[in-house]
Amino acid sequence: MGLLLPGERKSVEPMAARLAPDNVRRMHQSLHHLVADAPWNDEEMLAQVRQQALPSMQRHGAVVAWIVDDTGFPKQGKHSVGVARQYCGQIGKHDNCQAAVSLSIATWSSSLPIAWRLYLPEQWCQDAAGRRRVGVPEEIAFQSKPEIALEQIQKAVRHEVPVGVVLADAAYGNNMQFRSGITEAGLQYAVGIISSTTVWPPGEEPLPPRPRKPGRGGTPKRLQRNTDHQPVSAKELALGLPTSAWKDIAWRQGSAGRLRSRFAAVRVRPAHRDYKRTEPHPVEWLLIEWPKSESEPTKYWLSTLPERIPLKALVKMAKHRWIVERDYEELKQELGLGHYEGRSWRGFHHHATLCIAAYGFLVAERSRFSPSARAGHIELSAPELPQRFRPRGSPRSSRTA
């Protein structure tokens, strides 16, 4: 209730004052215990939220995508779990922050996070005293963000979550092990890559293994390249495409009209370290976006969607990752996802899980109505704060909103 009701700050103390203005201390202790100390399981809670919200989401269409993303939380000091100097998308630069990886399920009209894990930098994993201080479980070892995301995907497959195409940005999509893991899990993907990613142009592949030389042991099995036969970067391939390859595509309605851009798609083989392989990588789509206003292509994706998929459908799927950005905006601005003030591993995950539970309730409620009816905004009311209430750390002359 505290997370759903209006209020500028959704940390425990201001919520306690809004929920129980006549007995703030008792409510504060109760909420603090629930978030920081109570030994309930985050994964079990998120599974319950998914089971409650998913039927409502599916009234307006099937699950079409699983979306991998991460988000950062700027943080002062160095004692909160996982805090390190790293890239923070919220402020668009490297700074002191925490970062968490999530997996969301999405229909064309709604989405919901179903897995959430703090990214623990290597220096934290190696700091035994720091881990004990904030309660990091002993079984938690260092994992890169793509490794965390792939583990979340594998668990979702085991739990028989309705499948969708895996979408992710280039921070994940450029990782060959991540893409291979998705394929091994039986899923398709449309993931971002950087422009320097190498591929074999349409119809090309690595050279076959060298012939066996007499008296030189076993027959070579690895593929090869030479100075005249090399893969090209995605950017180089894009710049060499004929004008006829580029099509003007509109993929969805934005706030200022239909979103449109120029796209091309070609069938290529990824070239990542295939000189260590005995078989070439399978053929897949390379999708490229080149807006008319730009001097060169701006975005690239690799996708294992079917060979006969129309270009517009391929673009629409690759671009559907936008919906998770809306989730994070609402979770942070409306439900206080970034307002946790504690330092512990359990508290960080409990707070986020409860925010996602509140968001799941809102997603389910919205899904009861038609898209036009969901455009309205429902105002909720909360009791007035006690006259003299001030949260910790606020100026003596101010009151909380």
Textual characterization of the structure:
The relative contact order is 0.17. The model is unreliable at 373-378 and 396-401 (pLDDT under 50). The chain has 401 residues and is of the alpha+beta class. A hairpin with a 2-residue loop joins strand 9 and strand 10 (257-270). The protein has helices at 12-19, 24-37, 42-58, 122-125, 128-134, 145-158, 170-173, 176-184, 234-239, 311-318, 322-333, 345-366; strands spanning 65-74, 84-88, 93-106, 111-118, 165-168, 189-193, 198-200, 232-233, 247-254, 257-270, 284-289, 299-303. It is globular. Helix 1 (12-19) packs across helix 2 (24-37), helix 2 (24-37) crosses helix 12 (345-366) and helix 6 runs parallel beside helix 8 (176-184).
CATH-assigned fold name of the largest domain? Transposase Inhibitor Protein From Tn5, Chain A, domain 1
CATH class of the largest domain: Alpha Beta
Give the CATH architecture of the largest domain: Alpha-Beta Complex
Number of helices: 12
The secondary-structure element order is HHHEEEEHHHEHHEEEHEEEEHHH
What is the CA–CA distance across the termini?
17 Å
On the 0 to 100 scale, the average pLDDT is 91
CATH homologous superfamily heading of the largest domain:
Transposase Inhibitor Protein From Tn5, Chain A, domain 1
Q: pLDDT under 50 segments (min length 5)?
A: 373-378, 396-401
